[in-house]
Sequence to fold (176 residues):
Amino acid sequence: MTASPTPASLATAREDKDEAYRQRNHLVAALARLYPSGTRRTNIKDWDHEWHGCVYIDLPSGQISYHYHDSDAHLFADLPLYTKEWDGHDKEVVHQRLMALDAAGGTRWRPIAEAPEDGTRLLGWKRGFPIIIIRRHDPGGKYECWVNDRGEPVDHYQEPLSNLRYYRPLPAPPED
Fold:
């Protein structure tokens, strides 16, 4: 027969749980600054009112969200109000979307040889500065088609792929 937990052991377990949530919330706050995100209060029946704060993050792989305790609200205070609807994801879907970040491009720079050749607009890195590119496959070789400040292809300006080193997906545009 196992002994009942003591008040001291219950207090220690609660402190450990609170610390784990605090650490998680710092990571979520950092992630929320890398992708479009925002907060809003929820109203889930039978939940402690102090746990209705929720941060929503729109990853390239889909929406994720995390509830936080009011004591950690300061970590998300500078985020805007989130206006999109919750898409119904559960914990397993959140884990899948987090694991798919690299497959969706994430935010890291990748070798230009790995860039898609389907006309997707990308952020390229050329001679020390970023540029917007559209990579297409050309039977005579792989070239980059540069994009002007209106987002239109500039067909007359093509360069060999060797002039570019890295790419990454374009970030989502601001909602306003």
User: Anything to note?
Assistant: The helical segments are 7-32, 91-99. The first strand starts at residue 37 and ends at 41.
